């Protein structure tokens, strides 16, 4: 189970980093739209963890809802860190 959570977290991290980089490059200087994808994953992770405590064991692709929540929170955190770094370098160049 831990292996599936790590794989799911890695795949979600790559997806969210790509989405954030596209949104950061496409957004303007004063806009925060580049961070919205990470916020959505963060909220989804909290919902998954909350649902895991309320619902009996549910497994999706080898990981329970709590595992999906942890993977989503991990992906959101790493994606947000990378988006902030790219955005700050983009702001410094302009």
UniProtKB/TrEMBL annotation:
<protein>
    <submittedName>
        <fullName>Uncharacterized protein</fullName>
    </submittedName>
</protein>
<keyword id="KW-0472">Membrane</keyword>
<feature type="transmembrane region" description="Helical">
    <location>
        <begin position="6"/>
        <end position="24"/>
    </location>
</feature>
<keyword id="KW-1133">Transmembrane helix</keyword>
<keyword id="KW-0812">Transmembrane</keyword>
<feature type="transmembrane region" description="Helical">
    <location>
        <begin position="67"/>
        <end position="86"/>
    </location>
</feature>
<feature type="transmembrane region" description="Helical">
    <location>
        <begin position="36"/>
        <end position="55"/>
    </location>
</feature>
């Amino acid at each position: 189970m831990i292996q599936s959570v790590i794989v799911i977290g890695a795949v979600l991290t790559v997806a969210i980093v790509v989405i954030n980089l596209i949104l950061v490059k496409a957004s303007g200087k004063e806009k925060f739209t580049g961070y919205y994808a990470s916020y959505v994953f963060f909220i989804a992770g909290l919902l998954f963890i909350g649902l895991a405590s309320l619902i009996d064991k549910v497994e999706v692709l080898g990981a329970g809802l709590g595992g999906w929540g942890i993977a989503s929170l991990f992906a959101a955190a790493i994606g947000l860190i990378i988006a902030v770094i790219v955005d700050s370098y983009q702001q410094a160049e302009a």
